[in-house]
Write a structure and sequence with these properties.
Distance between the termini of chain A: 27 Å
Strand order of the largest sheet of chain B: 3-2-4-7-1-8-11-10-9
Oligomer: heterodimer
Low-confidence stretches of chain B: none
CATH class of one domain in chain B: Alpha Beta
Shape of chain B: globular
Largest sheet of chain B: 9 strands, mixed
CATH architecture of one domain in chain B: 3-Layer(aba) Sandwich
Helix content of chain B: 25-40%
Strand order of the largest sheet of chain A: 6-7-8-10-9
CATH topology of one domain in chain B: Peroxisomal Thiolase, Chain A, domain 1
CATH architecture of the largest domain in chain A: Beta Barrel
Structural class of chain A: alpha+beta
Radius of gyration of chain A: 24 Å
Strand content of chain B: 15-25%
Number of domains of chain A: 3
Mean pLDDT of chain A: 90
CATH superfamily of one domain in chain B: Thiolase/Chalcone synthase
Strand content of chain A: 15-25%
Low-confidence stretches of chain A: 1-6
Helix content of chain A: 10-25%
Largest sheet of chain A: 5 strands, mixed, barrel
Number of strands of chain B: 11
Order of helices and strands of chain B: EHEHEHEHHHHHEEEHEHHEHHHHEE
Chain lengths: ~270, ~425
Amino acid sequence: MEEEKGLTEIKLKVRSVKRERERKYRDYPAVVDNSTAAHDFWEPIVHLGLWDIKGHQIVKGPWGGGRVEQAKKRPPREFMVIDRASFAFYSHSYGLVSPFFQGLLEGKLMGTKCPKCGTVYCPPRAHCWNPECKVADCFDNWVDLPPAGVIHTFTVQCLAAAPFEHMLPFSMGWVQIDGADTTLPMLLHIRPKEIFIGKKVNIEFMPKESRKGDLMDLYAVAAVSDEKPPEWACLQKDTKEMESVENSTKATLEFIKNRYGIDNSPEARGW
Amino acid sequence: MPKANRRVAICGGGIFRPDLWHGENAEEGVATAYQDLLRQCPNLEADDIDAVMMSYFSDHLNQQLCMGWIIQDYLGLHNKPGYRVESGGSTPLDALINAYYMIQSGFFDVILIPGWEWMCEVDVASTNEMIASAADTDWDFPVGGYYNAYYAALEVRHMQLYGETPEDLGKIAVKNHNNSTHIPFSQWVSQRGTAPITLDDYWNSRTVCWPYRVLNNAVMSEGACCILMAAEEKVNRFTDTPMWITGVGLGTDSMRPGDRTVDFVYAGFKDEAKIYPDFVKIPKTPYPDMANFASLHVAAKRAYAQAGITNPLKEIDLMEFFAPYDGVELCLYEDLGLCGRGEGKYMIREGIVDYGGECPVQLSGGLTATGHPVGATTLYYTTFLYWQLAGKVKEMCGPDGLQVPNAKRALITGHGGTGCQGGVIIFERD
């Protein structure tokens, strides 16, 4: 609620006359427009003067070249450190592979198939990268793919970049969709103690209303529930590693709860 | 094989040490490194410099486009031809190779290569976000957006195929951090001092993205380095101990690591692939898969061919890898041909890559300990190799410096994205 209030205040500071939205595609029909509201919300923030100095600190720190010990021996200097922000609102075309992302919105998985060499790409390529095919067009050769595949590789993340931090901890990996030759990155809604390379998974989609049109619209779940990893599985065969992952996961859950007030424990979010 | 017209050498390097934060801004840091270079090469005058080849990776970490112009003007070199190179983590190595090409071509005799990166103006999570935007932002970035995770997944695949263990990764981490304690310019020394670490410290450090623990990952840094490169006709003016460039190689691979199951351009590399364990399905193209680094493999082949190297392990005295994660170091033992595919684990287990071993790797401490301000990174480690080949390690680092006795030939790598771009340079002394 606090954050929402902050954003409202920002909106109020923006010039009250609403600008007309730029029309880059004015000569082309927008068959679907789900972005006007987003532009209305975000563009004023972009135009707010993010470069203005928001604050500053005076920091007393080491300076100068040479070795660490030489730098630490010099009397420190004061440095003025300013705060400013940067932001842009991008309207990016998915290009000729747009049908893949439109498919995601419908809960469908598709790939492209090279008409020359027959390679099935998922992620789709609009043009084949097999040098023998000389960048052959694949964009009119879509194939429907089943919501099922095999884990090609994976990791358990206890740290992430800023936009994903609030979702931690999670597992992610690359899944070879049945019938495709390449592998697709996605979140794995599978507990670390059950993940292994070669594991069969099903692909599920987020509820229709929360799909946005990127790979976060889907995730993998175990095809076989309560499947025991084989004895060669590299994560589980070493109990010390499982312990380390569990400890780190626990610490991460606590960090997220403190920082974002979000409970990402398996009990709360169901995976 | 390329026709080399004349010999080209590194004549020295000046350092503004890497650290988590510097009060100085980038141009002041580069100027400090340049001052250091001028001390190493007292004959160097601005008039000697024919061109400036600038190495920096990011525009958005500092909200500044064309920072190269600031740097050139700050050093008073703004009447020179100037050129910026950018290829992710491979940026500084590419800058070196591009400068080498330019001098080889005969257009320029002497090139200054300043490299820098100021990575800590935004918070760490945002730095990671900005770095990860070097991944495919339509396909890879939206899922976690974090290079540690991509590299962890690559290492998990390699580990499952070839059987190295987290302990092997731990031994690499311990080796590199302890090497770093011998470098008085090291970020690890600045932040944590010179006490050695043990495997227990490794086991106690937190898992970031399994199998990587904190100590397996590159640090965030700010810092700068300036390298001087010259043609043989000019070398003697600057140094008595030139480090000759005798082989260079560049390579690239797919942007998305997940596409390497049909890596057609490497389809002919079937013999490079170890036989897969029977429980893992073999992809259409078995090399590099999401495990090894084909870009570095071809780069090394090209560099070895130029330098006339057939057995790198025997013929090269020491190596510095661009290894932001310890699994990269392990894979590169294989991709650079120091051992067979899948045998990287034996290199660390048998001490071959330790100080005193047959081919020490990361005597500098490397990116996970000594520092990783991207644009300066390979320039630092080139400077350290220069000290090694010139026999100056103890002079520059003090009596505890890890000098390889009589080192004659060294190798350095560059590495960008998830192995999307790589490069190798071979250095030799007279």
